[in-house]
Amino acid sequence: MTFQNIVATFAGAFIFPFLIRMIWGKMVENWGNIGGWMAAGFIVGTTWTLNHGVGMIFQTGAWVDMAWAAGIGLFTASVVSGDSFSKGVPDYLAALVGGTLGGFLLSCFL
What we know:
Distance between the termini: 24 Å
Mean pLDDT: 87
Keywords: Membrane, Transmembrane, Transmembrane helix
Number of domains: 2
Low-confidence stretches: none
Number of helices: 3
Transmembrane segments: 7-24, 30-50, 62-80, 92-109
Structural class: mainly alpha
């Protein structure tokens, strides 16, 4: 893996939780449940297209679902912004389990 691939992969993994943290809550605040559905389609769809469709991330054969990137990124952002470490652990574990199940299901037919 070259340095350029490392930087692009890190940036691609950063974009997803960053957009969730910055946009999702505001869309739900402004438009209610429909805003949540719109955020899901916009954020997940756009970042998936950037990372996998355009090829921003570099994969070497191992699969990692985008839920892992979201869980790790949002957990880190919460801890850095002042929330307690223990408060974010259940959400982090749920993201790991969800990401593992999602990746496994994808590997069954892809």
